[in-house]
Design brief:
This protein is mainly β. It is built from one helix and twelve strands; from the N terminus they run ββββββββββββα.
Amino acid sequence: MNRLTKATLMEFPKICDPRGNLSFIEGTRHVPFPIKRVFYIYDVPGGETRGAHAHRQCAEVLIAVAGSLEVRLTDGEKEVSFLLNRSNRGLLIPPGTWRTMHDFTTGTVVVALCSREYEEEDYIRDYEEFEKFVASLPEEKRAIL
Ligand code: TYD
């Protein structure tokens, strides 16, 4: 998966049942990469913001399995925002996209499915460095949102 892949909302299977609903996700089948890592964010105090970074190579799918939040993405020029509030909805974030997570409601649990194992050197955590990273790309690869 490369930086030109579009950020998109995806729907995962949902098996509705009077005993409770069930969703499932298989790497490569329901997300466009083999899943190498899963992490989750929870117990976020009201008003906190998370994220504020981009990855050079790692693609992620974020899912609010409980609760809701807003995810803002930018390619360095344009900004788009997505509401995650369904347990079977995911947001595919291609590499090279700056993301911030806002407005977590109480009890929100965000699961992230990742295409790569944890590598701190894959992170760009400084927005000016992200702008330099984007500026270093060929012009046709800069605008992705
Ligand atoms: P961080 O990337 O700052 O969280 P977020 O961007 O979602 O707000 O991660 C917090 C800490 O957890 C940081 O020290 C790195 C560590 N961490 C791991 O060790 N492994 C992981 O897979 C992730 C996502 C984070």
